[in-house]
Structures are given as structure tokens and as C-alpha cells.
């Protein structure tokens, strides 16, 4: 087969700024659904073609564990002026139009200064939509405590030091960093990241969080998490109590949080043994939509805990799981969950109790020097909008054992693709062949049966998008490490706080190889419906898990492994992809 003729069905753009996630317009009402859509700088056609050619030619070299260590100063170096736009001074003597013009002028000056300090192509993708930055300003002004939500797999990518120093310094407010998706990382790594952030930012409060305790992925292609009995629904999320304790420490008795504590307890009790919601036990939550005028002319309050109410501002990059955290805190599904960056695009306030309310901010991307391929793997840039996904696939494969996980066969090997059986030699997977990113995409397209409509050639573009979605979801897991982690690994693996992280993740220390072996045996006789469900797991373009909302009954599935070792690297059993 002429491998140069494999189909590349990527799109093209002609504007300097790409406007991501176009939503259908609403005829009635003033709300514009596209007002807060992501605006990213567009890369030149020459750059896209250069990377595409490189993906065909560059042989992948497996990186060492040491290469996964990242320091936050490498992502946000102080000398590069990687600030975020600030709201200019204003007063009530200004009218609305005058205020907007002043904000626009200040924002243009911010962009000019940022680009003057950093040469073209050096900055990562970051938000160019002023409307979204305005939402950040309002949330910072209204809130008493800021919940900065990050993905535990790569927290330094999503923790801008400039934002932290602005909140704790100029605003004199406290920051609680929520290390979300804690179930996707090995417990020692979770501890290491917590210690690193607290060392770098001494006044920072760190909280680990997961919306899926005890619900691992049993296969790379599984769309829904395996649900254990009694662990379903938002009421069983691991972390709401830890956020409450951090807020109690910050408020120091200035706000009565007893009603919040009782709500968390009631939400957990209201959850039935099968994860079914009892409507009687769940408190109602008032949701308030802020009007544009109220946000634009709101005065920043210098008084904390006004009228005895604690206001929590939720801030985070796209796709860090911010909506899932909100749903867990509220105790029911009020924000739809999606893997699409920038899914939440409007300003809302949730009253948890009479003394606690949450302000939700749309996800936005701060400027940094992070590698753009790593940005894509972190879910910051929408996979479906990529013009050239192949270099990101190469970046992923160089940092994960992709051959053992995906069980691919090199495209140069003749014959039909099939999953190697236990007795076959490893040479069937082609370790003696040199792999490029294009080879991986072509092999995955062949394995999954992705073909173009007209010529029936392997659709490598669709295959590349499929692999990137697996990485974003955590089914093909890439976890960065803090500096010196590999040298101190034994220290973290024997740390006394390890048991607490294991409990938060819903794991059990005694679960080990015995249950893994039992699971492998069950995998040989897995039912056809389960295989079909896995087959299309990575084909969901938008990823809106609307059916995962609070109150849906648990889906009974076979018992899955929950060993201490993270289960993402060797979980694709031999009969899952045939």
C-alpha cells in the first residue's frame, strides 16, 4: 500500500485568530451563546505543513522518566512578563460605553506588551477573547476565597503564578488549589505534587479531589468509568469535605459553615447503595444568572464575608474538570460535563446554603511557554479543532509505552491487523521497526477500521484524533512529575500520608496481583455488548456525558482492578480491539 496516499482529512483556516466552539444562535433574548467562545491565535499554514512533514519522517525515541519532570519556572518564567490582563481603574461617573472602551484599550496594550517580550511562536495558545477575561475580573472581585482547579496530571501547566500573587497580594484573598482527577495518578505522585506546590507557594491551600473514586478505566477503549457498588453519583465524590476544611481554616470562625457541613452529610446519605438519588434528602440549590450590566458596573467589595456569607470563586483552565467539581459540591448535576475545552460559557452563582455560594467562571487559558503539543494533550485546545494532530500523537507516544498499551502492528507488516495473543512473540507488534507519529496513526486506523468514505483508505486524521481523546480522558495516561521526583520516588512511596490519598481515590492497598489475574481471566470471556460499548468509546466527538448525571442508576459491570499502581498503561486486554 502506498502509505503517502493515506487520507489526511484535517481542515484549514485563513484568519489570524481562530474562534473555537461555534454555538447556534438564539433568536429571542439578549444572550449571545458565542460571546465567551475560545479565541486562540492561528498558526501559519507553513508551520502546520512543517509539523505534518516532521510527523512522517521523525523516528520516535522513548523519553526517560526524568524527562517528564517539569518545573513551574520553565512554564511561567518571570522574565517573560507572562501576566494576565487586569481590569483598568474605573468609577461610577463612567457610563457603560466609556468603561468598555477603556477595558478594550487596556487589553490591547496588554497584548502588545506581551508580544513585545516574547518572539513569535514562543507563546502557547492562550485566550484572546476579552469577554472571557471580563468574567475572570468579576469573579475575582465578588469572591472571598478562590478555588483554582487544576488537573493533577499536569498541575504546573494550569497554575499561573501571576494569578496567585495577584489574588494573595493585591486582593489580599486566599487561594485553594484543587488537584482534580486525583484518581488518574499514582498516589505517590499525588503526594509529590502537593508537596511541591506548597513548597513553591507557602500560603497556598492544597486539596485533592476526584469525582470518580473507585471507578477506574478497565480498558483503554472504555468510555464510561467502571462503577463500584455504592460509589456512584456526585454525593460520593472524594474531596468536598477537604474543601470545607480548608475554608474553615481560612475563615477562622468568621462565617458559620455548619450548614455546609450538614449539607455534605445529607447529600452522602441521600445516595442509595446503587448510586440512586433520593429526592427527599437532597437540598435544593438556588442558581442565579448574572446580567451583563450587573457584571460590568459591579463594584469590587473590600469587605470579606459580607453579611456573613462565604463566596467561593471557581477558576480553572478548560477541561480541568471544573464543572464536575461544581456538581460534586452542589450535590446534583447543575453544570453539564464535557471534554470540550470552554464548554462552560456563562456566569452563574450557586447558593449551596444560606451562608455559602459559588461563583463559576468560564474556563480560560493564560499565556505561558508550555509546548503546544502538551497543551493539546492536557485538553486545553479542542482536539476536534486541530489542523495537525500528528505531532501531538508523537509527543504522547515518546512519553508513554504506546506499543504495549495499544498493541499495534507496524504498517509495513503485511496481513490483516489483529491483537497479539498471549502465546505470540512480541515481534508481532513490531518493536524492531522504527515508528513515526504517522506510522502510529496509520496502525491505529487499521486496527480500529477507520476508513475514508470515498477511497476507503486508512483515515489517519481520525485515528490521530482518537488517540488524543484517549489521552485527554485519561485512558492513555500521561502524568508529568515535579522536579527530582524520580530521585525521591522511594520517599513518596513510603510516605505516611499515602494511605489518605489511597482512600480518597477509592483504592485499597490490599488489592493487588491476585485480583488482577482474576480480572484477566474474566477478560477472555467478556460479553459481546461490553465489547461493542468499548468499540465506539473514543468516537464521541463532543464528549458531553449528559447521561452520567446525578440520579442515574448504576450500571452493573464486571469487577475491575484497583491496584495501587495506576491502571492506564497495561490495561488493554487482547480481545478488546478485534
Automatic annotation (TrEMBL):
Q: Where is the composition biased (Acidic residues)?
A: 516-548
**Any GO molecular function:** GTP binding
PROSITE patterns assigned: G_CP
Q: Does the keyword Iron apply?
A: no
Which SUPFAM superfamilies did the record assign?
P-loop containing nucleoside triphosphate hydrolases
Kindly state which keywords UniProt assigns to this record, in alphabetical order: GTP-binding, Nucleotide-binding, Phosphoprotein
Query: Which CDD domains does the record match to this protein?
Result: HSR1_MMR1
Alphabetical list of InterPro entries matching this protein: G_CP_dom (IPR030378), GNL1-like (IPR043358), GTP-bd (IPR006073), P-loop_NTPase (IPR027417)
Listed name of the protein: Guanine nucleotide-binding protein-like 1
